[in-house]
User: Fold this.
Amino acid sequence: MLYHPGFEALREVARQGSFIKAARILGISGPAISKQIKNLEARLNLVLLHRTTRAVTLTEAGRRLTEILDRGGSEVDALLEQLSVGQDRPFGRLKMNVPMSFGEMFLHKPIADYAAAYPDVVVEVDFDDKRVHLVEEGYDLVVRIGVLEDSGLFARRVGDCPIYLCATPDFVARHGTPETPSDLSTLPAIIYSNAPGSPTLTFRDADGHDGTVSLRPQFYANSAGMMREACLRGVGVALLPAFCCEDHLETGALVRLLPSFQTSPDRGIYAVYPDRRFLPLKVRAFIDILEQSLRASKV
Assistant:
């Protein structure tokens, strides 16, 4: 069996859930135990631990390895050989979280295509718009739309997602056509309830100047589909992602307001994952399929 001091360090960090506590028990420094595990990860070409400011958690490979470290060299060797296969073909469990409305419209196919192409991967997918803690909740990948926070995670942009200000023609006939963003402050608005802060529209004019205007909430929803339906019923103006309103703009059921102003900042579609070191092939393969599918759908 391959021996490495990182084995004992990994086992103790897994037991204690902390580098500092594990280092104290092993009688070494925190930086030393971290270095041992990083060296082991480099030797195995695997990520064994995810580290955030809130928690230290085992990856699937780390969990499986710590479970058999006490069983003998032959079992450890067999597992390491099995894990190395996962670097050549997708293998294991892929747990992901995707937005509800966008996922229902565009992600059924690429997720099913991936599952069919890689039967050695067990796929677990949650459709949910709530904020999740990727590492602590055990996700390998989340798909998110918007502007990414500086969270210490890693992301690959797989598509664009412009946001349009929309209303029905009847709503415009009743309330008038807004000429400037400031005109929106008196109009009833449909608000995405998961957005942080007070309801506002941040915009950029044709000269590149940014501005912000407060909106008057009439309806809150955490689903783009629900917001669209409320907008189609004339409840108010709504900031809608292009993927759920373009068809209605083409038919005239909705009209775009203030088209010379762009919503700011730019929004994208991102695949977010916890670590780019030795990114598992099961994750990389799904991101590739996702990007290809979105490009073909012209999202």
Residues 6-85 form a domain with the Arc Repressor Mutant, subunit A fold (CATH 1.10.10.10). The CA atoms of residues 221 and 227 lie 6 Å apart.
